[in-house]
Amino acid sequence: MVALDLAELPVREVNERIREAGAAGDDVEILNPDARHHIGVGLIHPITVQVRGSAGYFCAGLSDQAHFEIEHNVGWGLGDNMYSGSVVVGGNAGAIPGVAIRGAEIVVRGNMGSRAGQVMKAGTLCCAGNANFMAGYMMYGGRIIILGDSGERVGEDMTSGDIFVAGKIGDLGSDAKLTDTDSAEIDDIREFLDRYEIPFNGSFQKIVNAGKKLRYGSSERQMRSIPFFTFSGDSDYWNPKVQEDLHIKSQIGRYRIRGYGGARALPHLSDLAFKKDLTNAGGDVDVVSKIEMYTELGGINGANPLKLSMPVMIAPMSYGALSASTKRAVGLASSLSGIAENTGEGGMSDAQRGAAKQLIFQMLGGRLGWNIHDMNRADGLEIYISQGAKPGLGGQLMAKKVTPELARIRGIPHGIDLRSPSRHPDILGADDLVIKVEELREATGYRLPVSVKLGAGRVRDDIKIAVKDGFDFIELDGMQGSTGAGSAEVIDHVGTPTLSAIIEAIDALEGIGRRQDIQLVLMGGIRDGVDAVKALALGADAVGFGTSTIIAGGCIACMQCHVGQCVTGIATQDPEHEARYDPEREAQNIHRFLESVRWQIAAITDALGHSSVSALNRDDLVAVTPEAARITGLEYAPEYRNGNTELDVRIA
Amino acid sequence: MCGIAGIMYKNSPGQDTGKALIDMLDGCQHRGPDSTGFALYEKAYDDQLRLRFFIGEGADAESAVERIRSELAKQEAELLEDEIIGNNYRVTVRFTGNLQHFSYAMEHNAKVISIGTSLEIVKDVGSAHDVDDRYHVSKFEGTHGLGHVRLATESDVKPEASHPFWATGFSDVAIVHNGQITNYWKMRRRLEQRDFQFTTDNDSELIAVYLADKLSQGVALKQALKTSIDDMDGTFSFLVSTSDEIGYAKDHLAAKPMIMYETDELVAIASEEVSLNRLFPGQALNTMEPPPGTYNTWSR
Q1: Considering chain B, what percentage of its residues have pLDDT values greater than 70?
Q2: What are phi and psi of A123, to 5 degrees?
Q3: By residue range, what is the domain housing residue A74?
Q4: Parallel, antiparallel, or unpaired: how do β-strands A473-477 and A519-523 relate?
């Protein structure tokens, strides 16, 4: 038994020592814990950790196989995301004990706080005392046993799993119902209680999902094939898009879901022009080798940075929205071009990890597929707050795409229309977020950059929070970003355009004198190297390409990503459709597109008179529309619009 | 976007309240690195008021002091003591008139931090230890107090935007709040219709004025906290203090943390247990997390 005293050592060092002890097969006792946060996070060995006192937030979080015995109380997020192992708490637990667990056993001998077992997938959470309100909130599976009273709204929006309550039930949450218990499951509970020496002889009521909210009776009809050009056309009145929308709503009687990007004309990077004549840009065949484009991302606080051969990365897109083959093609292309790929929501598959040399692992509120092992093999971690296409809303993955394999990775029941939570269980403000960021760093030994993905909404405030909470970089996603499935109205009408987003972000950072303390990656409708250079000149450190890589890899822009029957094999999980997709060939196509981006960035940077992308700046740009001038504060210079001969005169 | 703390010594005439609050706030400084503040209560002198003002520095400070002195004279407040500490001007006056009118008049001429027979608010940018270095909070012995650490988002990092907030127009009422009142403007308009004035757009000031208004109508603090939970929308955990009471209220969703520890000698409440443990190093405390939608008060 190794004794570690938190009155003497900081938490970071204690966690390192616990990991070493685990690897060496030793057990550990923690002295003077004094409710400090993050004790024992990220353990992956069958070690026993005894905490002599009270622990703070996220005790035992992000661990697998470890056993914890905490003598007294614990704070919020006990056993966060545990895969296996056990935790026994002698006293009370704060809010969200057992959040997002995937199979551990957690026992709280006292009372537990609100939202116990939120988004848990498997395992057992047992409370010998009373549970506070919303126990089992949005749980996807597993078992909660409450020997005392349950509090109010128990089982609120649970998808699956069982909640057993021996005491009084406050009231049932939305979409939860009471059902009969069978003797086998009661025997199983008794065996569990005996094992943890909890004397109890009472009876139980059982609460399960009522099945009213997450399963639609009628599925959404496929759209007529309206070409995107028509779909995004100028006429606001009874055009084919509006007619189509009304027809489908008349069938299904609810809001619509579709995939792909926004179809409204908004101010964008194409409303800016370069201040120099670029007619001869790229005349030099060796221009790529002459321009400094290498960019490191995420190392400013000491983590191992991502190493990008140019200031470009792949935007987050999930295995789920996209087929495994498509994720493989994108991953391979990112490796060929020396940039980074991103898992998006829903976990990391071996195929993705194998294909991408540099891979960011994204964490969302549902914690679908999130786990310590994939964190450890990632090159960066990312907390998703929202995305540009649908800021403030959770992800949607229609039942057609929730295959048994996807359900297994994500830890959810097969065949539901998956609506990912729009909020994180443990991030309800900037103050909680800072503790969460620290948990991810503690669990992975401070090796990995931690970024935040923000959909552009209240950009100024969000950016300030991101820098104050110590993120290494921000992925800022404007309204022109796409999605695999989102509410149609939201995609077109909610959010802040990418152009405004970058300006607001830079203003916010400079306004508090913190521009140098964080890096900024802009995404949301970046189409080519020209857009990329404009974004860099406005102040981004790098840009993210999503939709454009998918189009380069064969997408035909039919906007049916959500349906799951993508004929190109991209946005589908149907093997018959996916068979049409050749990942090796498409990887080459995407790679060639990325190389064209590289060439454009180099040629324009050169033509603007710079030798490095880091020298690009606002002075390289003008605005060619009044709106863009107003948004960016750049000079309004309509004479720079394409084909204007005055330009040549001016330059001459 | 912050952390809160409060402590009351139930029996003894005066303890290291300042030091205790510094320790508690240092324990949760990660929740709010931008600014730190304290509401501190000493023994009250009935006919004396202590006022604190932000006066800035240099020539600004000189002219602010002049304005304050002349307004005090105009309001017939007899100046007993005054001193400049950091960017604060602290005065003790004898005043027997209408306090609400007096404080609005002062507010129109200077940035008032607090007015009270026993309350003094000390707040500024920086950490608990930074503020202590500037204002010597650790030397403060008192009966009870509140503390706050803030991460600024909507408003700037300015001393006057830091917490605690004083209930403008009412002596000795202070508040620290973690959360967001979403029906702020609706509630504020209601109070403005009744001639209350607000000096910031901060929702914490609203809670303070709301409670002080109830108190001035003779409603008990506990009852005022009860109605506040129904009247305020949003997510909140807040602490309130008067010259002889301390209390908390927590909204129905309990999205903002709060934890308390009580003995025969004291009650301490904080955002996180790690703050409470700072008062009792090496001890496992029998703490209690107040349930959603609850409130309570303690008095001495």
Answers
A1: 99
A2: 95, -175
A3: 2-209
A4: parallel
The yes/no answer to whether this complex scores an ipTM above 0.90 is yes
Please name the member of B179, B254, B283 whose beta carbon is closest to the beta carbon of A114.
B254
Average pLDDT, integer, range A208-232:
76
Residue B219 in tokens: 């409603």
Asked if residues A477 and A315 have their Cβ atoms less than 8 Å apart, the reply is: yes
Query: How far is Cα B126 from Cα B105, in angstroms, rounded to an integer?
Result: 30
Tell me the chain A residues in contact with residue B31 when contact means C-beta distances shorter than 8 Å.
431, 434-435
DSSP for A372-399? HHHHHT-SEEEEE---TTSTT---EE-G
The pLDDT, as a whole number, for residue A648 is 43
Contact check, Cβ <8 Å, A461/B154 = yes
- Rounded to an integer, what distance in angstroms lies between the CA atom of residue A257 and that of residue A238? 20
Best residue in A431, A434, A465 for a mutation probing chain B (most B CBs within 10 Å): A431
Same domain, A499 and A583: yes
Q: Please provide the average confidence, as pLDDT, over all residues in chain B.
A: 92
Count of domains for chain A: 2
Tell whether A202 and A295 lie within a shared domain. no
What's the CATH code of the domain at A582? 3.20.20.70
Burial tier of A324 (Cβ tally within 10 Å: 0-12, 13-18, 19+)? buried
Residue A451 belongs to some domain of the structure: yes
CB contact B290 to A (< 8 Å): no
Q: What pLDDT was estimated at residue A257?
A: 86
The pLDDT assigned to A254 comes to 85
On whether any CB of chain B is under 8 Å from the CB of A327, the answer is no
Q: Which of A341, A298, A297, A348 is nearest to A319 (CA)?
A: A348
Mean pLDDT of B67-75: 94
In a domain, A545, yes or no: yes
In a domain, A235, yes or no: no
pLDDT score, position A647: 41
pTM value? 0.94
| Beta strands, E only, A169-237 | 176-179, 205-209
Place of tokens 């990077």: A269
Question: What are the residue numbers of the active site of B?
Answer: 2
The CATH topology of domain B2-44+118-220+259-289 is: Glutamine Phosphoribosylpyrophosphate, subunit 1, domain 1 (3.60.20)
A158 within 8 A of A119, measured Cβ to Cβ: no
Chain mean position to CA A299: 20
- Whether A351 and A499 map to the same domain: the answer is yes
Contacts of residue A489, defined as CB under 8 A and 6 or more positions apart, other chains included, come to A255, A256
Among B274, B276, B292, select the one facing A37 at the smallest CB separation: B274
B74 backbone dihedrals φ, ψ, rounded to 5° = -60, -35
Whether A647 is in a domain gets the answer no
- For A228-263, how does the pLDDT look when each residue is reduced to its tens digit (9 = 90+)? 777 877 777 888 888 888 988 998 888 888 888 888
Per the DSSP assignment, residues forming a β-bridge with A125 are A106, A144
Q: Which helix (H) or strand (E) holds B19?
A: helix B17-27
* Cβ atoms A473, A297 nearer than 8 A: yes
